[in-house]
Structures are given as C-alpha cells and as structure tokens.
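Propose amino acids for all 382 sites.
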C-alpha cells in the first residue's frame, strides 16, 4: 500500500523534460534553420498577414430592392404600334432579390371558353372521331377532348377541345425579339448590408453620391465601378453573353454583390464589388426546354362574355445575390494563432546543454543519438 502511494506521489510531483542531443553537423544545422524559417514564414506571412489571423470575422446580411426604367416602341404584329414601359415588361413589379425583364412574347388575343381545334401534334392529329377519346387531357394539351375530329386547316385534322379558344400556338418564337430595345433599359439596385457582430452597416449607394450623380451615372467596371445604376445590355455583356441572342428565348443572369471589408481601415474603404455571370445552360441545342419563359393572362369582359389575352413571356431573370465577410482586430484569435506558431517552433528549437564532443561518422552519430537515453547528454562532431 505504501509503495502504491509513493508511485502516485512521484507521478504527481515529478516533472519530465525531453533529452536533447547536440549534433555539430553543418547539413543538419542548415536543415534545422530552414525548417525554422519556413515555420516563421508560415505563421507570420500566411496565418497572420495573408489570412488575417489577428482578426475576428463576421458574414454579411443584407436586403436588395430594384427599380427598372425604360421605354420601348414596337410596330409589328401582333401589337402594331405599341409603347411599353416598366409596368408592362417587369413581371411581377417586385420580387425578393430578383427581377424579371420581358424581352419577347407570344400573344393569343381575345380568347373565350368554348370548343375549337387543338394545335397539331402526335397526340392531337386524327382521321376520325374514334381517334379522339372524349374527356382525354394531359399536360401537353390546351384543353379537354370533346370526342370529335375537326379541321384545323385545309390539310390537317385535329381533335376538338373544350378550352380557351382559339388555342395558343407557340411553335414559332419571334426572332429577333420583340422587345429588343430592352438592351438600353436601366436598373437601379439598392443594397443595404450589415455585419451584426461589429455593429457596422452600409449601402451600395456611397455617401459621396448625390441626386445629380445618380441621374447621369452608369456602371462601368473600369470607369465607374460603384454606380448602382446598370444598363441591361452592359450587365449581359459583363456576363459574357450576346443580348440579341439571349433576348429571343430568355435566360437567367446572376448579379453578385461581394462585400469583403477590413474594418481596421476607414469605413470608406468598405465598398462593394459586382460580379456578373450566366446561371442557366446557354447551349440551347443540348438543353431540353431552354431559356426562361412563363405565361400570364389579362382578363376583361366583352358583351357579358369573359375574355382574355394570353401572353407567353420570354425574358431574362436577374438574380441578385449578396455575400461577403468583414474582419476586425481581436485579441483572442491573435493569441491563439501566435500560440500555435510558438508550439510549432518548439518542435525545432532546442536548448543546448553541456556536451562531450565525440567525433565519428554519421552512422556512429546516429548510434549515439539512439543511446541518448543514458544518464547524460552526449554530442557528436562529424
């Protein structure tokens, strides 16, 4: 029992240190110093300077609102002479962190509920009433089959449907796009961000901007990178796309607002960086259902009959994404990173103790290192 207590006391009260072998060899010494330099470069250059290991970090939160402006005039079928403004081509008027700009459209005017021939397809072509099952419908038809086979034109018969008539025919997409002038429309993007951890907030409309500046400025990556007003054609160009081609079937463009801020500097140095890229697949030949489109209708009453005009709208959906982080000096991460660096250095820095110089070959020196578990420290000169 006494022996057990003695062992426990020795374990608690003893302090062990590693045994050091001093090797007087130029090659080993140079390698040792090089390792020390590499560790110092890593801790100071990479961890503290490049990665800003002396700072605490916080991610941004923010809101985005948009306002599109522009006028377009069309003078072709199906609209004849028509003036378009933001209320016509921005659908819906407001979305969360995005907006849609209509650039092309297929219009089916004055539709009423009734019976009419379906658009020709594999499912709807017929020779007799027996080819048209009454009550049949699916996601590809415009209505419900009545069970009759009727003339679509002089050459083709199709099944009659109960639907909004005349049914939409979207086989041919207008090219060039009807609203090609949308290239010159502008959008004002207002973005407010905050870093809650540091109680810091800011807008992308900088403090030195005034009303007259906002009326005339247009974003240019080289000349005016902080103007919050963007020409639609410039945004598409910055994303590496051709507006004229994109406007025909539509697509999705990302507007990325990056806030990377060093709050140890002046707040005026915290500014946004805009990045533009296409988000959907632009290879129409290899993509099923390419582009971006949807349908909506405008309803009205004609002599007591409910009537509508159906629009199949093609256009560009702009997704505005805000991201980034801010850093500010904090003693805790600073001490943690410095402590980690000192621990690494402790692996290669040694404390020289008195030694007995004993010349020999490298193999003999290795043998002495292995024998260093003896009663005293030994060193070797090669």
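Proposal:
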């Amino acid at each position: 029992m006494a022996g057990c207590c003695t062992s426990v006391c020795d374990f608690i009260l003893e302090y062990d240190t590693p045994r050091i072998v001093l090797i007087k060899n130029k090659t080993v010494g140079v390698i040792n110093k090089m390792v020390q330099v590499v560790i110092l470069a890593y801790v100071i250059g990479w961890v503290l300077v490049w990665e800003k290991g002396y700072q605490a970090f916080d991610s941004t939160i923010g809101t985005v609102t948009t306002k599109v402006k522009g006028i377009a005039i069309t003078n072709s079928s199906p609209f004849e002479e028509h003036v378009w403004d933001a209320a016509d081509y921005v659908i819906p008027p407001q979305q969360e962190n995005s907006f849609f700009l209509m650039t092309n459209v297929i219009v089916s005017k004055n539709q009423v509920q009734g019976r009419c021939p379906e658009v020709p397809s594999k499912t709807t072509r017929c020779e007799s009433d027996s080819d048209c099952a009454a009550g049949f419908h699916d996601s590809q038809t415009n209505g419900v089959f009545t069970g009759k086979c009727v003339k679509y034109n002089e050459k083709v018969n199709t099944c009659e449907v109960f639907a909004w008539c005349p049914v939409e025919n979207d086989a041919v997409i207008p090219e060039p796009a009807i609203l090609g002038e949308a290239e010159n429309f502008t959008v004002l993007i207002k973005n407010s961000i905050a870093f809650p951890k540091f109680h810091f907030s800011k807008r992308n409309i900088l403090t030195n901007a005034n009303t007259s500046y906002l009326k005339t400025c247009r974003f240019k990556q080289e000349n005016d990178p902080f103007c919050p007003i963007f020409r639609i054609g410039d945004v598409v160009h910055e994303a590496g796309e051709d507006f004229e081609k994109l406007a025909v079937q539509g697509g999705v463009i990302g507007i990325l607002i990056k806030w990377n801020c060093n709050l140890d500097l002046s707040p005026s140095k915290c500014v946004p960086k805009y990045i533009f890229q296409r988000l959907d697949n632009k290879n129409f030949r290899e993509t099923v259902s390419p582009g971006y489109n949807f349908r909506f209708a405008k309803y009205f009453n004609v002599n007591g009959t409910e009537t509508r005009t159906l629009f199949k709208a093609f256009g560009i959906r702009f997704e505005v994404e805000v991201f980034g982080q801010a850093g500010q000096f904090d003693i805790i991460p600073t001490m943690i990173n410095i402590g980690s660096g000192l621990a690494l250095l402790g692996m290669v820095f040694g404390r020289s103790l008195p030694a007995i110089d004993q010349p020999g070959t490298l193999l003999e020196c290795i043998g002495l290192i292995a024998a260093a578990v003896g009663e005293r420290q030994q060193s070797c000169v090669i």
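The chain is about 25% helix and 35% strand. Helices lie at 2-13, 26-50, 86-89, 211-216, 232-238, 243-249, 331-346, 362-370.
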